[in-house]
Amino acid sequence: MTKVFLKREDAPSREVRDGETFEAFFNRTKADGDADTWEELAIYNWGTKEPKEVNRAMLENIGLSFIKDGAPNLSTFDRSRGLRKEILLPKAWTKDGLALEKTHTIKIRKRLPAPAVSITKLSQWFVPEDETCTIEYSLEGVLARAHKVDYEIHGAKYYERNKGGELVSPSDKEKPYIVLEKSTFIGDPTQYVPPPPDLTIINWKGESEATSGVLKPGGSATAYINAVCAPYPVVIRYYKDDKDAKATIILEPFFLCWKRTSSGAVLDKSKLVVRWKIKDDNSKLKVGQLHVWDKDDKLVFRAVLSKEKLKEGKYDLLTEPVKWKESEIHEDQMPYRVQIQAHSDMDEDNGLALAVMHTEVRTFKYEWVQCIAFDIKPGTKSVKGVRTYLGDKNDDADINNRCEILKDAIKVAYAEPSVERRNSTFAGHAAHTNWKRSRESSTSCEWKRTSLSMQTGYFSLGLLSAFSSTKRTRVQG
Fold first, then answer.
1. Is residue 160 exposed (0-12), middle (13-18) or buried (19+ Cβ within 10 Å)?
2. What's the CA gap between 441 and 439, in Å, rounded?
3. What angle do CA 58, 149, 50 make, to 5 degrees?
């Protein structure tokens, strides 16, 4: 027979010790409570004995320095990483003086765990239309608290086109720019059918269903996401009440940068601030976690987020009590990505849990780089021993003429048999910078060269060493 314990508010508590395992804590305090096993102790405190759920509860509530997957009794406490320092000790409920041969009714409440969701795999980047974005997530909790799973994908940047065709971004855009919304599973509590605890979504190829902005489909044509509105945060929503169907987390872009100095690359510390905004959660989200993954999808940093920190929507990775050591941040481990998780507590019957993380798009997937250099001479003649420029005296006309010369050179290069035409080869073009005659025209010319290169499907790489047109360089990724 399952024991009946006193209410939690009537239970004594004991502080954990740093470096102590959950099992060691149970053995040390066993005489002060009535739990016979560490599993009973876990159920009383967090409503579950499932290893994964117990580890999460201890991590968020107490703090852990070591997590033993599948065996939370061997996980190790670190009070500096959690939100509180004590664990409740259950005391058995007893009642004296009950009459014999009479029915007595006792009202009890079963403790249930809080729901939670985590993104376990997400493509770092993919080519829309040609490749699929893999999304995997994992659920925790019970059917009675949450049984619906949705996912939506946001565009981190929102743009519209004005009457002149230029891209503009409204400054008052508060709602998430949703490019895709899907319901992946709705469980049936009446039939005790829960949603699958782990699910993989691999059928999204970047299609956009946006109702506004530049990603809105035109007519019957399929629209795909692009680099303009990137990155694309993926939100997983796990809930019970339809009133929470719009709850979301708007995650701002997170990109680390290194500045080049004479002494080497220096990390830009201003980029180590994670920002987000919670919307329409009906004040249910009480605790969460912040994760940082490296290029190998390895978890390299984790911090617990309190109710207040979730509401604040900001975490400075270098100055918060739980810090990411600067010595552990390496440029060769880019890209680093952030995941925010948040959920309601175990006292909320209509549970809610969210997780958000971003994916990126790339325009092309290159395997080779081919560098092509043009020898475009500025055109001068000697007048009384002085080299005189032969171009147009009008700066704008002169720059346009020079751009036409470069455009013709690109066409000649494309017709050259030794130039690669495969989509997997990146063709980089460079021209001498001495084809200018003043600093002002140089600036304008540089801008127009970049525009020209983009229009013709090539990217100007600026100054490069002169490579043979048959020279190819292998690139990774």
1. middle
2. 6
3. 30
Q: Each residue of 374-392: pLDDT tens digit?
A: 666 656 667 777 777 767 7
Which tokens in the block code for residue 127? Answer: 């080519």
| Tokens read off for 457 | 């499907």
Burial of 235 (0-12, 13-18, 19+ CB in 10 A): buried
Q: How deeply is 286 buried, as exposed, middle or buried, from its count of CB atoms within 10 A (0-12, 13-18, 19+)?
A: buried
Q: Residue 235 is which amino acid?
A: V
pLDDT of residue 309: 97
Do the Cβ atoms of 152 and 135 come closer than 8 Å?
no
Largest CA distance in the chain: 128
Between the alpha carbon of residue 190 and those of residues 143, 193, 253, the distances in Å are 10, 8, 41
- H or E, element range at 308: helix 307-312
Which residues of the chain, if any, have pLDDT below 70? 1-2, 164-165, 170-174, 188-194, 363-366, 374-381, 390, 423, 430-477
Q: How far is CA 31 from CA 2, 45, 75, 89, in A?
A: 19, 17, 21, 10
Domain range annotation of the chain: 8-88, 116-361, 368-474
In 11-151, which residue ranges form alpha helices assigned H by DSSP? 22-29, 38-46, 51-61
Backbone angles phi, psi at 456, to 5 degrees: -95, 5
DSSP 172-228: T--S-EEEEEEEEEE-BGGGTBPPPSEEEEEEE-SEE--SSSTTS--TTSPEE--GG
The dihedral over CA atoms of 214, 217, 221, 224, expressed in degrees to the nearest 10, equals 60
Residue with tokens 């007893």: 94
Which helix or strand (DSSP H or E) is residue 373 part of?
strand 368-374
> How many Cβ atoms sit within 10 Å of the Cβ of residue 67?
16
- Interval 173-219: pLDDT, tens: 667 889 888 877 777 666 666 677 778 888 899 999 999 888 999 88
Instruction: Report yes or no: 166 and 244 within 8 Å, Cβ to Cβ.
Output: no
Asked if residue 432 lies in contact with residue 405, where contact means CB atoms within 8 angstroms, the answer is no
Residue 336 · residue 328 · CB < 8 Å: no
Of the candidates 55, 58, 119, the residue with the CA atom closest to the CA atom of residue 339: 119
